[in-house]
From TrEMBL:
Signal peptide: none annotated. Residues 18-249 form the ABC transporter domain. Belongs to the ABC transporter superfamily. Pfam families: ABC_tran. One of its GO terms (molecular function) is ATP binding. This is ABC transporter ATP-binding protein. Keywords: ATP-binding, Nucleotide-binding, Transport. It comes from the Bacteria.
């Protein structure tokens, strides 16, 4: 699919859970090489719902998240969480933020419930929250089983349950479905959707768009540590993807010639043609009709986010000297 230029659709909202401008981070490797991991990232995450933070491996997602959480320092740029500048005022918002950046450690011989009870006691959260978070992560029935008997997906959901104990408003999950089987991925997705539906803000990073597309209300796509596109899934597709129409016409060869001569891109698709580059579907009908070719079918083809993602991030990926 041909895609027109790179555009960022600004999220129009006065209330942002996360807002970064010009965020930048360069690492220095042991051999003294400079790696620009994040270079001028503007990230806006609206309050409420699931926001997919998407980019190929090495595009700077984890680095950005670690800066937001105050785990590493930014070289330049500004960040705020719920309107509070971070890291300066992170202590004031930290209670509202729950994150899983690395797999948390649980006691393997204790049940999931016992692990959560210990954590709840440690952070001064009432024990009743343990039942609630087990319910929210669909672990209630397995809560009494030992952690070491859990599947990877259940372990990951227990990690989410642990972050939910303190009732955060913003949840940050870095590649939460890594290594999970399809059933595990689906369960995490459902958990995230449930949290988004409760009005919580979920920022979920992934390099596998299909895992996030179904659950995200809004997305930001990054490459080489820069924002490539952002907005609702529909906006990002609409702003980036060129219009494609599937055309039914008796004379496929004749129609291909007419449309190609008219500057459009034409591909065969069985007994149909896929035509790209038209400003609107009617342009295709008009061009063909002018040459005595009549269209039996004309259907705009919806681009999917996967195609947009692949196109935007083509050639992106591993950071390096820049
Ligand atoms: N501690 C570090 N020292 C040197 N380079 C690093 C360090 N951490 C990350 N990088 C490099 O910075 C770039 C961005 O990495 P980062 O982990 O933020 O990307 P990512 O999008 O989260 O990728 P992935 O999905 O693979 O985790 C990569 O080129 C990576 O190799």
């Amino acid at each position: 699919m041909a895609l027109s230029g790179i555009k960022a659709v600004k999220v129009v909202t006065s209330e942002l859970a996360i807002d970064t401008h010009g965020l930048r981070k360069t690492y220095r490797t042991l051999r003294g090489k400079r790696v620009v991991a994040v270079q001028g990232l503007d990230l806006q995450v609206p309050i409420g719902g699931v926001h997919g933070f998407l980019g190929p491996n090495g595009s700077g997602k984890t680095t950005s998240i670690r800066m937001l959480l105050g785990l590493i320092r930014a070289d330049a740029g500004t960040m705020s969480v719920f309107g509070r500048p971070v890291p300066e005022q992170l202590p004031e918002v930290v209670a509202r933020v729950g994150a899983i950046v690395e797999s948390p450690k649980f006691f393997p011989a204790f049940s999931g419930r016992r692990n959560l009870e210990l954590l709840a006691d440690a952070i001064g959260t009432p024990r009743r929250r343990v039942d609630e978070v087990l319910e929210e992560t669909a672990l209630r029935d397995r809560g009494k089983d030992r952690f070491k008997t859990y599947s990877l997906g259940m372990k990951q959901r227990l990690a989410i349950a642990a972050t939910l104990l303190k009732e955060p408003d913003l949840l940050i999950f870095d590649e939460p479905t890594n290594g999970l089987d399809p059933a595990g991925i689906r369960e995490i997705r459902e958990t995230m959707r449930g949290l988004g539906d409760q009005g919580k803000t979920v920022l979920v990073s992934s390099h596998i768009l299909a895992e996030v597309e179904q659950v995200a209300d809004t997305v930001s796509i990054i490459g080489h540590g820069r924002l490539l596109a952002s907005g609702t899934v529909a906006e990002v597709i609409g702003s980036t993807a060129a219009l494609t129409v599937r055309v039914g016409v008796a004379d496929l060869a004749g129609a291909t010639r007419v449309l190609t001569e008219g500057g459009l891109t034409v591909r065969a698709d069985g007994q149909h043609l896929l035509v790209e580059g038209a400003a609107e579907p009617a342009e295709v009908t008009k061009r063909l009709a002018e040459q005595g070719l009549f269209v039996s079918e004309l259907v705009p083809v919806r681009a999917d986010l996967e195609s947009v993602f692949l196109e935007l991030t083509a050639g992106e990926g591993l950071g390096g000297d820049r």
